[in-house]
Request: fold
Amino acid sequence: DHFEFFPSFSPDGTQVAYATWNDEKLGTIRIRTIAGPNAGQERIVVKQPGHYAAPIFSADGQTLVFTKLGGGWLRTPLWGRETGIYRIPSKGGKPERVTKTISRAFFGPENDRIYLTRRKSDGGGENPQFYSIDLSGNEERVHFTSKWGFDFCLSPNGKWIAFVERFNVYLAPFIKTGQTIAVGPGTKSLPLEKVSSGAGDWIHFSGDSKRVHWSLGPTLFTRELTNTFAFLEGAPDKLPEPETTGINVGFKATHHRPRGTIALLGGRIITMNGDQVIEDGAIVIKGNRITAIGKRDEVEIPANANKIDVSGQVILPGFVDTHAHGAQARNGITPQQNWVDYARLAFGVT
Reply:
């Protein structure tokens, strides 16, 4: 009875935390056990209705950090206050807000510190900052900045940083110098390599921190760190070029197909065949296909058809909006029923 978003593995790989969404009941944070004697069991960690995203486990698996978003626009505005990053024991308890910042959060090897991204746009670039705070929201440290970047990701062992700048994925060691390090394609102050050949998004590391993943459309790309830096043990004599092939994680699904036969009778039909207009017409629809169209007295109506009188109505092909932006989702949450799409349908846009 709900949609599911933002899956995240526990460090030991036995559990998955994720957020749910239901247009009427709103969202929850849940954990499902996927391995071991309790495989298949699920518990609701955050039961209070809300707009939730991006739950992640601490390194020891004892703490869960998640984002609470505001509502409105595509989703109900209810339960949309007190937004920010929250923490809660993974076994359940009372959520406590860590910061009012809305960001994708990461844990490194520490259990008491999270890493976040914020933008400092000044018109000359996005200038995002990758920084960390403790679980009380204090002890802030700014680690990296990138003039045109828009996403950072920390490896679980805290030794590597991946970031996206101008749509390409870059990888560098995470060096704690006590000062902010500016990174970008031309960085010379530390080893830095571009690992994507075209573009990439949704960067994340494997649980053992030995490889970095990103996606482009339906393709999942993976890059071994040993194929990126020659100084790593196990690196080949000649490092390979940035990744060009990946795994297609897209899928095909059967769409809904209506059954039965409908006959629309008596309407004025605008055919779009030149200036042709059919008065007192008939349209026969079987399943999801028009099987006959013409004047009512010239079209054979199947005996099993559901006959609908549309006298006085005008029927014409659905309009196609060739420049539509949506929105289909907001903050990564897709509503079960999107009023934008319903409004389009009401005005004949198919």
Notes: The first helix runs from residue 339 to 346. The mean pLDDT is 94.
